[in-house]
Amino acid sequence: xxxxxxxxxxxxxxxxxxxxxxxxxxxxxxxxxxxxxxxxxxxxxxxxxxxxxxxxxxxxxxxxxxxxxxxxxxxxxxxxxxxxxxxxxxxxxxxxxxxxxxxxxxxxxxxxxxxxxxxxxxxxxxxxxxxxxxxxxxxxxxxxxxxxxxxxxxxxxxxxxxxxxxxxxxxxxxxxxxxxxxxxxxxxxxxxxxxxxxxxxxxxxxxxxxxxxxxxxxxxxxxxxxxxxxxxxxxxxxxxxxxxxxxxxxxxxxxxxxxxxxxxxxxxxxx
Length: 271
Description:
Helix content is 73%, strand content 0%. α1 packs antiparallel against α2, α4 (76-97) crosses α10 (235-255) and α7 runs antiparallel to α8 (186-209). The protein is mostly helical. The longest helix has 29 residues, at 119-147. It has helices at 6-26, 31-53, 58-69, 76-97, 119-147, 152-166, 177-184, 186-209, 214-230, 235-255, 257-261.
């Protein structure tokens, strides 16, 4: 029976990711900045793949392959529901923001990405790597390694905190979305970090309801990134959005109590 090692996994991910991102912060000269940022983004997936395929567990390796390649086992209704839910979150946030003086023009698409620096490559690193490679790391090993010992509710709390903390160095790397919002107002930085935690409940819901599918998580993560980058929401509206996300996550938990609070899976993830 395989024994998950969440502490070792997350310490390794943080140490490698933050080392590359510190390199990008210290040697901010364009190419070096980009290289450090991209290599840091690769770390969760790289550590997960190495952890899985250097293990002696055939069950762990088989499960990893199933989660990313068995697309025919996806449950489209849950993916559609998640996409519609996040679309509703964005729409409600914009509508509520008008009470604080924001415009309905936010329902339009932006011409450019909300970050600067290395242009297309930066956009690729932010949207593609975050949606694909992060999910291979988090859902490929990270989330299951916590859920092996806790309910999905407690796992979502723990992972949400870890996920938010992992982003921290990005706020000091020029050219990233995170750097741009810190430059605007440190409160926007805090809002981003706070918003990540309740999103963890929604991403867990998508993941588990699709039979722990990485592919489902990748699709949903990609949609979130696209909406957050291309819908013309102001940072003030994104603060309102955090409140709406908390409400949505609460409703998801209340309507899926058995999934979030059952403990039948503990110790039996690979079964």
